[in-house]
Write a structure and sequence with these properties.
This protein is α+β, with helices and mostly antiparallel strands. It has one domain. Helix content is 52%, strand content 19%. A three-stranded antiparallel β-sheet has the order 1-2-3, covered by helices on one side. Helix 1 runs antiparallel to helix 2. The longest helix is centred in the last third of the chain and has 39 residues. The radius of gyration is 26 Å and the shape is elongated. The structure holds zinc ion (ZN). Zinc ion binds next to loops.
């Protein structure tokens, strides 16, 4: 039992460390950014014949809203910021995945440590 409580304590410390890492991460943003090269459609423009002369790249933000993919062209500065915020979000997601694993390990031990409790063994009146 003491071993279990020690292990539970170790997991709680790890969980708190991970939560602390999340606290230090800045703004987050959903979806992803793609940089696309474009053909303008003007018949005399070099881009119509030469793939290397295409315009861009221009940043496009893609996300899902109610299961539907949504695209939006971004300004260059906006895109640089959002790229960083998307990296932040992915970092938080990977930390949360580890927190879930730690919590999962904690559950079986926590259940053992709490049973039998007095109130559980009391007969129902
Ligand atoms: Zn063109």
């Amino acid at each position: 039992m003491e071993q279990d409580e020690l292990q539970l304590q170790t997991l709680a410390i790890r969980h708190k460390e991970l939560a602390g890492q999340i606290a230090d991460i800045g703004f987050i943003w959903p979806g992803s950014i793609q940089w696309r090269w474009k053909v303008c459609g003007k018949p005399n423009c070099a881009c119509s014949k030469d793939p290397a002369a295409r315009h861009g790249p221009y940043p496009y933000w893609t996300t899902k809203v109610n299961g539907k993919t949504v695209n939006r062209r971004l300004g260059h500065d906006e895109a640089i910021l959002i790229e960083k915020w998307i990296r932040n979000r992915r970092e938080i997601e990977s930390i949360m995945a580890e927190m879930k694993i730690v919590s999962n390990q904690a559950l079986s031990i926590a259940v053992k440590c709490n049973v039998p409790r007095q109130e559980d063994s009391d007969p129902i009146p």
